[in-house]
Design a protein that fits this description.
17 helices; Alpha-Beta Plaits; single chain; binds S-adenosylmethionine; four-stranded antiparallel β-sheet; 42% helix; 3 domains; N-utilizing Substance Protein B Homolog, Chain A
Length: 442
């Protein structure tokens, strides 16, 4: 839970509550992602208010059904139309009372004042009345000023996802559901062109940043507490990047060397691409493709920060005639578009934006991309299929059906025990990820 100061002046911080309510409205009513809605809603706020609005909106999305139930029970009739934003403001208020270390009176007054900022001055009494009712009925806070939220039988997941997780991972379902509602750790990837991981750990120690090296992802460091990137030694010069440890395994599994001709599909914002470039001085430029021009701008920025380069195509990867020069690749990394159900800890909006029917659509798209790319692989070449999904349909089932259709394709086992690798959220501290190494017959 957030580490806000316990006391705030009356009404102080109302802007951050109003911004959180607006961002939540955009996500839950308009289907926008929180990572797009939040910067817009908080663009005019000072950094401290931005951080508070972010902590509140991410937090609300983690426990949305529990908060909806609390607030819904206090409303005579649902808030609709132009008043709907007040529903989200009430969730913002309830979240502070239950889940944040903010004094009750400060939380209530700032939230009531936020109603005015949202243009609902006449409804300040309603917000005040409901938050005070919640306070009267709330269990008293413990020493750390935390109240326990009423339980939700699906651990604050939508029914379809709760069922899919239980179906695909019956033994681990409880753990996955609980992990999905936690705050993920911050992981770094050390750029081995500038320092060894041990050297970088010493630099972190000198900067009073506590961290631990990962046991198997050889460039990965887990910070004991999140830290603004500006405080990381050498961040601006590309000495280190932020990347989850599960994602860092791609650079190992691709089994690449400097002589290989390499294609990175679905490359933006460039995390795995940069990792490859940091590790190898390729004889031919790596080619990277993504369909989203905005996200490709981030690839450009990241390459520039690290002083590295690649050939970038903005294209639909499946329409190979539009961008392929006809020369096959030794290695293809396909970080396929997916449900992102492995990274719900980082993006809790995924729980509410994804629909059950999206999964079949995504599986169709993945299948189409895989079969369009296969002819681009040299005989004897390898394609690494990766997703940040934990759903079988996008992962094991997808690969099994590909292997049935492509007689020249076989699996190279990822580890001695596993043909493919399904990492679950929180496993080794990392995100949920899937990897399969496909080899093309000679
Ligand atoms: C999981 S993200 C990739 C993350 C990236 N590999 C990294 O390590 O930073 C998936 C990407 O697929 C891209 N994408 C989705 N459909 C695509 C398509 N048909 N062709 C090319 N890129 C696509 C999205 O724009 C998105 O950037």
């Amino acid at each position: 839970m957030s580490q806000q100061k316990k006391s705030e002046g009356s009404g102080h911080g109302a802007q951050s509550r109003a911004a959180a309510a607006s961002a939540l409205f955009q996500v839950l009513e308009k289907g926008e992602s929180l990572s797009a809605a939040l910067p817009y809603a908080t663009s005019k706020l000072p950094d401290a208010d931005k951080r508070l609005a972010s902590a509140i909106s991410y937090g609300v999305l983690r426990v949305l059904p529990s908060l909806n139930r609390l607030v819904g029970a206090k409303l005579d009739k649902p808030l609709k139309g132009k008043l709907k934003v007040l529903h989200y403001l009430l969730l913002v208020g309830a979240y502070q009372l239950y889940c944040q270390r903010i004094k009750d009176h400060a939380a209530v007054s700032a939230t009531v004042e936020a109603a005015r900022i949202l243009g609902k001055r006449n409804h300040k009494g309603l917000v005040n009345g409901i938050l005070r009712q919640l306070l009267r009925e709330a269990p008293s806070a413990d020493d750390s000023h935390q109240r326990e939220l009423p339980c939700d039988s699906m651990q604050n997941h939508p029914r379809w996802l709760f069922d899919a997780i239980n179906n695909d991972h019956p033994e681990h379902a409880d753990n996955i559901l609980a992990e999905n509602n936690t705050h993920p750790p911050m992981w770094l990837r050390v750029n081995e062109r500038f320092s060894t991981r041990d050297d970088y750990l010493r630099q972190l120690q000198d900067s009073d940043i506590a961290a631990t090296a990962d046991a198997s992802a050889i460039n990965a460091i887990q910070l004991h507490a999140p830290c603004p990137v500006e405080k990381l030694p050498g961040f601006a010069r590309g000495h280190v990047s932020v990347q989850d440890r599960s994602a860092q395994l791609a650079a190992d599994f691709l089994n690449v060397n400097a002589a290989h001709r390499v294609l990175d599909c679905c490359a933006a914002p460039g995390g795995k691409l940069l990792h490859l470039l940091e590790r190898h001085s390729f004889e031919q430029p790596v080619q990277a493709i993504d369909i989203d021009p905005k996200r490709l701008e981030r690839v450009g920025e990241n390459l520039e920060r690290a002083g590295l380069s690649a050939v970038i195509h903005c294209a639909d990867v499946a329409t190979t005639n539009d961008w392929w020069d006809g020369e096959q690749f030794d290695r293809i990394l396909l970080d396929a578009p997916c449900s992102a159900t492995g990274v719900i800890r980082r993006h809790p909006d995924i729980k509410w934006l994804r629909r059950a029917e999206d999964i079949s659509e995504l599986a169709k798209l993945q299948k189409q991309i895989l079969s369009s790319l296969w002819p681009l692989l040299k005989p004897g070449g390898e394609l690494l299929y990766a997703t940040c999904s934990i759903l079988r349909q996008e992962n094991q089932t997808q690969i099994e059906s590909f292997l049935q259709q492509q007689s020249g394709a076989s699996l190279i086992p990822i580890t001695a025990e596993h043909d493919t690798l399904q990492l679950l959220p929180g496993q080794y501290g990392g995100d949920g990820f899937f990897y399969a190494r496909l080899k093309k017959a000679q």
